[in-house]
């Protein structure tokens, strides 16, 4: 056993296989399985030293420098895509991503028709929004990351879905500490999510079963119900329609669970609101107040500073 050698030494091909395994696991099973695979991929990337920058060697051979630059670019792409998957899947499932020390690997540029570098930039926005502990988040700190998602511009349908997924993750981060979210932030969020929901039918038509087609509408329902205001609740019908379309298209257990859970969450929220409305109706019914006979100037009452303050409060919370 002292001289035992592993069947295969880790190399870039092994790492690529673990990246594919991570994606396949996320597409076909529970998120925690994909998280475990992505953690393993990150450890392999560290063993290979991909997180450290490597200067291309200057060789006299005319082809060697180009080859080194090509391999260096491949190594950078491998590392940052591995890191992006790990960070996205970990935050999605509420786990801690793998954090490597002394990361000096440089970023890479997108080639014609590719969007990998923008995806890495998108995950960096997510990372910036998850800095610090939950209790240390100040109102507005995470909100500043939301417009940056939109600043990345448009792309293919799957990139639009990833933008929405990151946006929803940041919104869940905000909602974990406060329900007070500015209207501009909510408006931007609605715009990002609407764009993603509109792309889901196209992805279904192309038979591209990315996990976002299920997670984005489901998380949209959860975030909309948590905020529960007039700005974001209009997303609910489209989100449920997309959930049902995905369930009909793939007929998987996870899709059925997501649709059923979202449906019951909406019913529970509606019942809660109906209960509150009944108490308000009882309060109104218990007071037989006739403004015409009471001598109260109703128009003057509506202009009172107290009522204006209440109206401002409603506008702020809505």
UniProtKB/TrEMBL annotation:
Cross-referenced Pfam families: Fungal_trans
GO biological process: DNA-templated transcription; response to xenobiotic stimulus
GO function term, MF aspect, one: DNA binding
Domain Xylanolytic transcriptional activator regulatory: 14-110
Keyword field: DNA-binding, Metal-binding, Nucleus, Transcription, Transcription regulation, Zinc
Keyword Transcription: yes
Protein's name according to its UniProt entry: Xylanolytic transcriptional activator regulatory domain-containing protein
Species, as recorded: Penicillium brevicompactum
């Amino acid at each position: 056993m002292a001289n035992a050698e592993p069947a295969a030494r880790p190399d870039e091909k092994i790492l690529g296989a673990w990246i594919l395994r991570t994606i396949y696991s996320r597409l076909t099973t529970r998120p925690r399985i994909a998280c475990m695979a992505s953690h393993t991929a990150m450890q392999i990337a560290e063993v290979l030293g991909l997180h450290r920058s490597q200067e291309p060697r200057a060789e006299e051979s005319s082809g060697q420098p180009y080859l080194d630059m090509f391999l260096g670019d491949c190594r950078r792409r491998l590392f940052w895509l591995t890191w992006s998957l790990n960070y996205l899947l970990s935050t999605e499932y509420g786990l801690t991503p793998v954090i490597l020390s002394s990361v000096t690997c440089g970023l890479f540029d997108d080639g014609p028709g590719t969007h990998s570098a923008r995806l890495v930039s998108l995950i960096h926005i997510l990372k910036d929004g998850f800095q610090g502990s939950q209790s240390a988040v100040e109102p507005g700190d995470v909100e500043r990351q939301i417009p940056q998602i939109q600043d990345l511009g448009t792309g293919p349908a799957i990139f639009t879905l990833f933008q929405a997924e990151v946006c929803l993750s940041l919104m869940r981060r905000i909602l974990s500490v406060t329900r007070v979210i500015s209207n501009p932030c909510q408006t931007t969020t609605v715009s990002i999510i609407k764009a993603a929901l509109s792309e889901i039918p196209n992805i279904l038509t192309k038979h591209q079963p990315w996990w976002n087609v299920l997670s984005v509408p489901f998380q949209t329902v959860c975030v909309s119900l948590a905020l529960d205001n007039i700005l974001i609740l209009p997303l609910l019908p489209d989100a449920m329609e997309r959930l049902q379309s995905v369930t009909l298209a793939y007929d998987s257990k996870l899709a059925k669970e997501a649709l059923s859970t979202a449906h019951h969450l909406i019913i529970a929220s509606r019942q809660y609101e109906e209960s509150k409305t009944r108490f308000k109706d009882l309060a109104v019914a218990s007071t037989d107040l006739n403004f015409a006979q009471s001598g109260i100037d109703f128009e003057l009452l509506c202009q009172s500073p107290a009522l204006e303050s209440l109206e401002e409060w409603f506008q702020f919370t809505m």
